[in-house]
Design goal:
Rossmann fold; six-stranded parallel sheet; 16 helices; 2 domains; binds flavin-adenine dinucleotide; alpha/beta; five-stranded parallel sheet; binds NADP nicotinamide-adenine-dinucleotide phosphate; 31% helix; 21% strand; FAD/NAD(P)-binding domain
Length: 471
């Protein structure tokens, strides 16, 4: 092919940006098996689309505001976006402004990196009551995602119950209990800061349906709980067997470390802080109670049982209890959602693929959570995107990409601007970024997020600076 290979990437989150980075390979190439190798042997142009005017996906709208160090990947993404051949088309939703079939006609190849924008349901009565929310929605609210800025979050009750034992459950527990003076120094959305300032929440109870050693959280995140300012950590004693080795057999190092932390929490005296996080294991939600709003949660106790072959199983018991609460957050996992015109695997919430190649759709690829399911940290997406890009480049090399009447860059730009007058390009996003950081600097914070689409569009023009307290 004499002209550059033209690739569309849908989604400017970590997997989409890493895919762009691999395609627009930096000096020295890409690490494969510990060695720098050049993957790309032809000129490539990459257009990255996002339905939001902003970039970075869950690095902006997922990673907890009190974890700024986890957001350092954004610097890598900034460098990728500065490479020749990179263009950004923000505020363009694929499936709305542009159909996937059109993208396939406009480009030599399309990579879907749309993440997982739905959530898993518990499938229990009362789940739809006011005050029972997916943690995904709560997280998007405190991180200033424009779609969730106006949701109702009732923090008037003393206890919040969080279902699930993953890192997201720990994130929301921290945000609900961290002293407001600390949150005021982060990039948490202003509307969330205001609500948390007036919060009556004193206790966050995390429920794990399995045992303590099954906790899906990572050790550093679990250990961080122990040093939170002004928060007691309570691990309910009865959940920890006295002799782990006898109960569990040979434990791996990660599980040992987890248990040691939980035992430390269980055994240390409480400091009597105003706020507490309670970890309760072997407990399943049965029904969210209430008329219009959440008034409580009915739970049942589980126990560990060994089968004839010695394997441990979690089994329900008939022991039930009601936990008094006004807010239930289900942190039991995100889930991909279908895109019109693309296959979808309902069971796993992914676009079905073989090593990143979408089944039955030539020149169409996936990466990130929509490829693998909603698991893995930011860095996991780097290798994931590399594998997808290698498949794409191998197809290009072997001439298996159907050569459609690919549009040149200026044509794509013209069509998109006709369909979306408020398209945000790379320069527009840089203006938004600059203004948010400038507002943040003035307030001693990393940034103050703009959380409304029309204000983001206005900020993208590079015209007058946004007021410090724009909400
Ligand atoms: C609450 C939470 C906290 C986390 N914290 C950490 C952490 O501290 N450290 C860590 O390493 N990992 C963390 N992770 C994991 C990390 O965020 C994910 O591994 C990563 O974001 C997945 O990347 P992705 O590109 O697949 O999806 P996403 O980050 O979700 O990006 C998908 C992008 O696609 C866009 N999009 C969706 N649909 C369309 C469409 N139709 N058209 C155009 N654009 C579209 C979205 O707007 C979004 O920008 C966290 C995850 C969550 C949920
Ligand atoms: N700081 C960080 O690095 C960070 C922060 C946030 C997220 N992340 C990453 O993002 C990914 C997603 O995190 P996540 O917390 O959403 O998911 P997760 O790690 O998969 O945890 C989900 C939790 O929900 C429980 N669960 C699932 N279905 C349930 C049900 N029906 N009833 C009760 N409990 C149920 C699971 O229990 P079982 O184990 O019993 O199934 C598990 O404890 C993970 O890879 C995580 O590491 C990383």
């Amino acid at each position: 092919m004499s002209r550059p290979l033209r690739v569309a990437i849908v989604g400017a989150g970590p997997s989409g940006m890493y895919a762009a980075g691999h395609l627009l390979e930096g000096p020295g190439g890409t690490y494969v098996d510990g060695h720098l190798t050049s993957l790309v042997d032809q000129p490539v142009e990459v257009d990255v689309f996002d339905r939001l005017p902003t970039q970075w996906g869950l690095v902006r709208h997922g990673v907890a505001p009190d974890h700024p160090e986890k957001k350092l990947a954004q610097t890598v993404f900034e460098h990728i976006a500065a490479r020749p051949g990179f263009r950004f088309f923000g505020n363009i939703e694929i499936g709305n402004h542009v159909r996937p079939q059109e993208l396939s006609q406009w480009y030599d190849a399309v990579v879907y990196a749309v993440g997982a924008s739905g959530d898993t349901a518990m499938g229990i009565p009362g789940e739809d009551l006011h005050g029972c929310l997916a943690a995904r929605v709560f997280v998007a609210w405190y991180n200033g995602h424009p779609d969730y800025r106006d949701i109702e979050v009732d923090l008037s009750h003393e206890r919040v119950v969080v279902i699930g034992n993953g890192n997201v459950a720990l994130d929301v527990a921290r945000i609900l209990t961290t002293p407001i003076a600390l949150l005021e120094r982060t990039d948490i959305a202003d509307h969330a800061l205001e609500a948390l300032r007036n919060s009556k929440v004193r206790e966050v109870m995390l429920l794990g349906r399995r045992a303590h050693f099954h906790g899906a959280f990572n050790n550093p995140e679990l250990e961080e709980l122990g040093v939170l300012d002004g928060v007691d950590i309570i691990v309910e004693h009865g959940d920890l067997p006295d002799n782990h080795e006898a109960v569990l057999g040979e434990l791996d190092a990660t599980t040992r470390r987890k248990l040691a932390t939980l035992e430390t929490y269980a055994n240390r005296p409480l400091a009597g802080h105003d706020k507490r996080i309670v970890l309760r294991f072997l407990t399943s939600p049965i029904e969210v109670l209430g008329e219009q709003r959440v008034a409580g949660l009915l739970v049942s106790r589980n126990h560990l049982e060994r089968d004839d072959s010695g394997r441990l199983h979690v089994r329900p018991t008939s022991e039930e209890a009601v936990i008094d609460t006004g807010l239930v957050l289900r942190a039991i996992g995100y889930c991909g959602v279908p895109l019109p015109g693309l296959p979808f695997d309902e069971r796993f919430g992914i676009i079905p693929n073989v090593e990143g190649r979408v089944r039955g759709m030539p020149a169409t690829y996936v990466t990130g959570w929509i490829k693998r399911g909603p698991r893995g940290i930011i860095g996991t997406n780097k290798k994931c995107a590399r594998d997808t890009v290698r498949a794409l480049l191998a197809d290009a090399r072997s001439d298996t990409l159907p050569n459609t009447g690919t549009l040149i860059g200026t044509d794509v730009d013209r069509i998109l601007r006709q369909r979306q007058p408020h398209l945000i390009d790379q320069l527009g996003w840089l203006h938004i970024d600059d203004k948010e950081r400038a507002a943040g600097r003035a307030a001693g914070r990393p940034r103050i997020k703009i959380t409304e689409i029309d204000q983001l569009v206005a900020a993208a023009t590079g015209e007058p600076a946004i007021p410090a307290n724009h909400g």
